[in-house]
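Students often ask why we bother encoding 3D structure as a string. The short answer is that it lets us treat folding as translation between two languages. Here is a chain of 204 residues written in the first language.
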Amino acid sequence: MPPLRTKANGNCTMVVAPEGGCYNGARDKDYILVRRMGLKVGEVKLEKWTSKWREGFEDEKRNLQSVFGELALDIQHIGSTSVEGLDAKPIVDIAIGLNDLSDFEKVRQKFESLVDYSVKVEDNNPGEILIRKGTEENRTHFIHIMKQNSKEMCEVIKFRNILRTDPGVREQYSQLKRELAKKFPYDRKKYTVSKSDFIKVHVR
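And here it is in the second language, the structure alphabet:
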């Protein structure tokens, strides 16, 4: 079969079925939308879990290891994209544990020199420094720099593990996320804040 052709369409890649053949049941000249990772800043849109998110984490982990070196004591895939079967925004969250947050200053200039990354300088959550990957039109990763074994890092890992192992909690959280995504489709701050009480109950 001839190789598949693709063409961009917003946040999607349109896979063109080869002439005289088909792709996943598409007839000649049909298009199949394959979601790319990332969302516009502020947008809330949930998608079905895909192993591509795990691959996106592994790829980025290698990038981060090359920048942080031995400063990174741990690099973990967190957030909903790390939980198989859970609907999520197509943005990969990563937690990096450092011996101390001040160690980030040793690599800050490296990130500030990279086109794809931006360091958030205001309104960071307590106990973390946030690095964003991607443009404002298509954010693909949030990288949360934390102190290794801090309360903040332990809580995000604990909540991830609960979602991975408790189907009941996972379904409750999924339902809440779907409701909030409908309520706040273009207000990610309100969407995120509105999940906080549910999360707090389970990480106490």
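Translate back mentally: The longest strand covers residues 138-147. Keep this in mind for the problem set.
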